[in-house]
Write a structure and sequence with these properties.
The complex is a heterodimer of chains A (about 190) and B (about 270). Chain A is an all-alpha fold. In chain A, about 70% of the residues lie in helices and about 0% in strands. Chain A is built from ten helices and no strands. In chain A, helix 5 crosses helix 9 and helix 7 packs across helix 10. The longest helix of chain A is centred in the last third of the chain and has 24 residues. Chain B has about 270 residues and is α+β, with helices and mostly antiparallel strands. Helix content of chain B is about 50%, strand content about 15%. Chain B has eleven helices and seven strands. In chain B, strands 1-2-3-6-5 form a five-stranded mixed beta barrel. In chain B, strand 2 and strand 3 form a beta hairpin. Classes of the chains: A mainly alpha (about 190), B alpha+beta (about 270).
């Protein structure tokens, strides 16, 4: 029998094969991804913690149901984030309400990178960037909001974002540019008021 | 829900509802079906295009002076609009299926659309070279009741005696050397061929197009007689109700053609 220590050392891809043999080991995937996904869900949805956990549970059940779909042609983390993305979008459509950002927990390094990429340091250098960026992301369209979160908060590269939202790399890049331009506009507006 | 116990709770749910991962065959089948649907749509797009190529081969642009129409008018009147719409639908289905393959999302819309269009053109060209466009048009004309009127603009374009165009099937030859024709509405016409200048042998039961002039309600003076190409299958419907030979008999008369010395069946001019 495979012990927990062994499972922790396994890659995601190896773990999938083990889970298909022994469903009890699925909790290892849950433990590995639950915190990341819960943060991601809360960042792009209007759900409170309880609702977000319900969404998370649905995500993991879908992951389990569709384990055989994963074939290693993309990263497991991209695949699981894609399921999370779809579940959040489905949930959003059911509620027909625009997701609202709930107090994004952004690291200083992420703020620095995002601020640098949008050239907003000079314009709003005296503002408390962290609070403003969180509020500004909240004002973005969902498609821009999500791409900013995936890149700067979840720290995914373009290929991973492309695999998660199922859009071509070119679309990801152009959407990212538009998102940054929008974000900058919102932040500059905020600083001038 | 305690986040720490989430793994246990999910496992409990999975066990309680006896949830099992879908089999690999399910995803393989889904993927194959997407490709199969795309391939079928590609075949259909190629077939549509080959019929359109066949129509364009015989749209008589070179005769527009005799027909008294401009190139634009000819294009508008002979454009196979419904085939174009079908082609668009099939190309969209190809695009949709390619987009929904496992890695289809990685490609830009224009790339997938261009690939679908180019593949359709390539396949349509091949089908056309093999003569499948002509065969498909004929089979559809013969087997489907409204195809001729709806899908093939050539029939309507050539069924306009007021403007000097008449299409129909050769019913019989009269004693005075003229011929009798039944048009697509099963109206009988006497065709005066005294001024007609052509070398084409005319076979009874053969669908033909005539350029000329309407003389009366049922007589038409021919200036030029041409074989009917797109739409000729339609006239296999016309025969029996017009009191002519049956479609099968007409077909038998046409393939193979009657012997050259059979004066009852054929006239050379």
């Amino acid at each position: 029998m495979i012990n927990d220590l062994n499972l922790e050392e396994k890659t995601d891809e190896e773990l999938v094969n083990i889970i298909l043999e022994n469903q009890n080991t699925f909790s290892c995937v849950v433990n590995r991804y639950k915190d990341k996904l819960l943060r991601y869900i809360r960042r792009i949805s209007s759900s409170n913690l309880e609702d977000a956990e319900d969404i998370l549970q649905n995500i993991f059940i879908k992951v389990y149901l569709n384990l055989n779909e994963f074939d290693g042609s993309l990263k497991f983390s991209s695949w699981i984030y894609r399921i999370a993305h779809n579940e959040v979008i489905d949930n959003y459509r059911k509620k027909k309400a625009r997701p609202q950002l709930i107090d994004i927990d952004i690291k200083d390094s992420q703020i620095k990178e995002l601020a640098g990429d949008t050239n907003i340091i000079e314009e709003i250098s005296r503002l408390e960037l962290k609070q403003n960026i969180s509020a500004a992301i909240d004002e973005l369209d969902l498609k821009y909001q999500e791409i900013i979160i995936l890149k700067y908060i979840e720290e995914k590269d373009y290929q991973e974002i492309s695999d998660i939202i199922k859009k071509p790399l070119g679309t990801v890049a152009s959407r990212m540019n538009k998102a940054k331009a929008e974000l900058k506009k919102i932040l500059v507006n905020k600083s001038s008021h | 829900m305690e986040n720490n116990n989430l793994g246990d709770k999910i496992l409990e749910t999975i066990k309680e509802h006896r949830i099992k991962p879908k089999g690999r065959w399910y995803f393989l089948l889904k993927n194959y079906l997407i490709w199969l649907a795309g391939a079928l749509a590609l075949l259909a797009a190629g077939a549509s295009l080959s019929v359109m190529i066949y129509f364009f081969q015989y749209n008589d642009f070179g005769m527009r002076r005799e027909i008294n129409k401009s190139l634009a008018e000819m294009l508008i009147l002979t454009m196979p609009y419904l085939w174009l719409i079908f082609l668009g639908i099939f190309v969209f289905i190809i695009y949709y299926n390619l987009k929904h393959t496992k890695t289809g999302y990685r490609y830009q819309i224009w790339f997938i659309m261009m690939s679908a269009v180019l593949a359709s053109i390539f396949l349509g060209g091949l089908f056309s070279l093999a003569g499948w466009g002509e065969k498909l048009d004929e089979v559809l004309e013969e087997k489907t009741p409204f195809y001729g009127q709806v899908m093939n603009p050539h029939l309507d374009f050539w069924s306009n005696p007021e403007e000097g165009r008449l299409v129909g099937v050769v019913d019989s030859f009269s004693e005075d050397g003229n011929l009798n024709l039944v048009d697509k509405d099963r109206t009988k016409w006497t065709i005066n061929i005294s001024e007609e200048d052509m070398k084409m042998p005319i076979i009874m039961g053969q669908p033909i197009r005539i350029l000329g002039e309407k003389e009366s309600k049922s007589t038409f003076k021919a200036k030029k007689i041409l074989p009917m190409m797109p739409g000729r299958g339609f006239f296999k419907h016309v025969g029996p109700r017009a009191g002519m030979k049956s479609g099968r008999e007409i077909n038998n008369n046409m393939v193979p053609p009657p012997r050259m010395n059979d004066s009852r069946m054929k006239k050379d001019f």
